[in-house]
Design a protein that fits this description.
Elements: H1 2-119, H2 123-129, H3 136-144
Helix pairs in contact: 1-2, 1-3
């Protein structure tokens, strides 16, 4: 009976060993699957980080290009404004010169007219025209500041 008992126990233990071997095989398969999943997740994470880094670099480059374009446009506009100011100054100086010439011409005409009156010996008129000293610059300044 002892032998029979040992044989039964041997069969039970052999079954347990076989079950344990199958479980170990399953666990090894599960471990390989988990390792593969972990490696895949690490690769995906690395790719995502690299993609984000490249995208950030692209965004920075675009921002630099746009800012340079804005600076260039602002510089061009500033140059146009400077050119316009210079042109307006030249036009102002030309207009001032023309006005001065006109005032001088009118002053000459008034001076000639007053001398004509003096030559006709009109005593009343002579007194009025004696103070006919026209300051051209003063008249010009008054004309230019009328609108201000």
């Amino acid at each position: 009976m002892n032998l029979k008992k040992l044989q039964n126990e041997n069969i039970k233990l052999s079954g347990k060993i076989e079950n344990s071997s199958e479980e170990i095989t399953e666990f090894k398969k599960l471990e390989k699957t988990l390792q593969a999943t972990l490696v895949s997740a690490q690769e995906s994470s690395s790719k995502a980080v690299e993609s984000a880094r490249k995208q950030n670099q692209l965004i920075i480059k675009e921002a630099e290009i746009k800012s340079n374009q804005l600076i260039e446009r602002a510089n061009r506009e500033a140059q146009l404004i400077r050119d316009s100011v210079l042109k307006l100054r030249e036009e102002k100086n030309l207009l001032i010169a023309k006005l001065k010439a006109m005032v001088e011409t009118q002053a000459s005409i008034l001076d000639i007219g007053s001398k004509t009156f003096e030559s006709k010996s009109l005593p009343v008129e002579t007194k009025k025209t004696e103070n006919l000293d026209i300051n051209v610059d003063d008249v010009l300044e008054k004309l230019l500041w009328v609108n201000y």
